[in-house]
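User: I would dearly like some help making sense of a protein record. This is the protein in question:
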Amino acid sequence: MAEQAEVPHGLHSAGVPNERHGPVTVDQGPVPAVSTLKELAADGLEELIGMTSILRSELKVHEATCRTLLDEVRVDHQITGVLPEIHADTWRSAITDAIRGFEAARHRVRLLLVAIEVEEGRSIGEVAKSWGVSRQLASRWVQESVGLRG
């Protein structure tokens, strides 16, 4: 019987590293492992927390501006004189931008969490149930999440 040569740790018998770089699918290329998706989700959640803070700040400014307008309307001042004072030219766009940023971050996190569920073996029906949405919507989220996984 021939002696077997000792193979260095971490190599298979051909001397090639015995490590994998994540699962690969034929049609989509590399798909991150669940741990990579969780890292992306963690980054996304940090972004969402930041966007929540920005939105909260803009909502406070918006509320204060509305109170100023309310006071002016109640005392029957001309609105045309008040609008420049409250910076009406940027008032609307600031809150709209904050809402859009928040919604985009929230949607990205939701898709990443859905991708994690799918990678963990959950069905579309189970995903739908966990989010309290229809199977049709859950299916759409799963399809959208493919872009985040690739």
